[in-house]
Amino acid sequence: MSTIGYESWAVDLGTVGAVYPFQGWELVMTVLGVLFWLGWHRMQFLAESKELEDAVNSYKGPEATQAIERY
Predict the structure, then answer these.
(1) For residues 71 and 69, what is the distance between their CA atoms, to the nearest angstrom?
(2) Contact criterion met (CB below 8 Å) for 2 and 21
(3) For residues 50-54, average pLDDT
(4) pTM for the complete prediction?
(5) Cα Rg for the chain, rounded, in angstroms?
(6) In this structure, is the dihedral angle defined by the CA atoms of residues 25, 26, 27 and 28, taken in order, positive or negative?
(7) Contact between 45 and 51 (Cβ < 8 Å)
(8) Where are the domains of the chain?
(9) Contact predicate 18/4, CB 8 Å
(10) Under a CB-based contact definition with an 8 Å cutoff, are residues 21 and 5 in contact?
(11) DSSP string spanning the chain?
């Protein structure tokens, strides 16, 4: 099985060109990687914002006010 189109390595590698898998997909993979990276950061931002909002809201009840007034 060959990912670059050569069945035998008994050739002059100077004329072969790129010898790595998925050649020609560099731009597509870069765009997909950047989109994944941006999406991951967006998801993290939303999840952490909700967690922070829940933490802040947990201190707004009457128990929190009583605890502050106690001291």
Answers:
(1) 5
(2) no
(3) 94
(4) 0.61
(5) 28
(6) positive
(7) no
(8) 27-70
(9) yes
(10) no
(11) --SSS-S---S-TTTT---STTTT-HHHHHHHHHHHHHHHHHHHHHHHHHHHHHHHHHTSSHHHHHHHHH-
Distances (CA, A) of 56 to 44, 45, 49, 52, 60: 18, 16, 10, 6, 7
Q: Quick one: tokens of 4?
A: 């670059």
Pair of tokens at residue 28: 């597509």
* Cα distance between residue 45 and residue 38, in whole Å: 10
29 contact partners, CB below 8 Å, separation of at least 6: 22
The pLDDT of residue 22:
84
Distance between CA atoms of 23 and 4, rounded to whole angstroms? 7
- Here the tokens at position 41 are 């950061």
pLDDT number for residue 33: 98
Identity at 56, one-letter amino acid code: V
Locus of tokens 């002059």: 12
